[in-house]
Write a structure and sequence with these properties.
alpha/beta, globular, about 15% strand, eight-stranded parallel sheet
């Protein structure tokens, strides 16, 4: 679906929100932050926002920078191209951990190796600042696919280190195995646990090694006690925020379409959970994001 980008906040009103089933704009953050993980290429039916429109709306509420994330070769190339066309957007490129065993099974290990080689070629681009999302997912991948998934993860770690990029980790039901892999093969300088789903143990390990934990709308979910326990023990210098849009919309709009402009709900929840001022958390997240990704100019 194609729409012209909105020009100002006045054009985005409650009637438009109801018409599109998109939540209204929240109150603006006191200090701008980065959405460190977003999928602007994934459409959500009639609720799909163009990348330009998503960035305009997000900027209106203090989310003025977005990291667009690829999950295979086509979406990674799309992410790279978007980062070149829109100021305020950077790219991450990778083969998703659930894609790796599918490619190996359907097209063979040589095809997976070829796709990883294309990701490495993209990694040298100046607008590509992270290798991800990569990692391990033992929720959707059974034993038969874990060897190729681990191979892909280790290759992405090598690429991140070779090109001095951050690695953006997808970790589902594989916390210990992800940590063991990072320690065994050697972690890149900058490591991000995307959509942090661990607990106090994983957060403590991350803090010990200087790794970053990026919190999505899941931290606001009632059943995410473990995620909040991780947030509680994590120092401010290790915290990032994200949407993983169009997925994982924060409360009170869970189940409706997600977009970067809804990050203020997650940020306010996190600040309250940690018992700190919102502005302090915003400044920390902004500073951390620039340490990880660099400037977005």
């Amino acid at each position: 679906m194609t729409r012209e980008p909105l020009r100002n906040r006045a054009e985005w009103d409650a009637n438009t929100a109801r018409e599109m089933d998109l939540p209204p704009l929240p109150e603006k953050l006191p200090i701008p932050v980065v959405d460190s993980h977003c999928h602007l290429d994934i459409e959500d039916g009639d609720n799909f926002l163009s990348p330009q429109e998503a960035l305009v709306r997000a900027t209106e509420v203090g989310v003025n920078r977005i990291v667009q994330v690829g999950v295979d070769v086509p979406s990674s190339k799309w992410s790279r191209d978007l980062a070149h066309s829109l100021p305020g957007i950077l790219a991450a490129v990778a083969i998703h951990p659930n894609e790796a065993p599918r490619i190996a099974s359907e097209r063979g290990l040589s095809a997976l190796e070829a796709d990883i080689a294309e990701i490495e070629a993209l990694a040298s681009d100046v607008r590509v600042r992270a290798i991800g999302e990569t990692g391990l997912d033992f929720f959707r991948t059974d034993d038969s696919g874990r060897e190729s998934q681990l191979f892909s993860f280790e290759e992405h770690l090598r690429i991140a280190k070779t090109h001095n990029k951050a690695v953006m980790i997808h970790d589902r039901d594989a916390h210990r195995e992800v940590v063991e892999t990072l320690l065994r093969v050697g972690a890149p300088e900058k490591v991000i646990f995307h959509c942090f789903s661990g607990d106090a143990w994983l957060a403590s390990i991350a803090a010990e090694h200087g790794w970053y934990c990026s919190f999505a709308g899941t931290v606001t979910f009632k059943n995410a006690k473990n995620v909040r326990e991780g947030l509680a023990v994590l120092p401010l210098e290790n915290i990032l925020v994200e949407t993983d849009a169009p997925f994982l919309t924060p409360e009170p709009f869970r189940g409706r379409p997600n977009s970067s402009y809804l990050i203020p709900h997650t940020m306010r929840f996190m600040a309250e959970a940690k018992g700190i001022e919102l502005a302090r958390l915003c400044q920390a997240v902004s500073d951390n994001s620039e340490r990880v990704f660099g400037t977005f100019d």
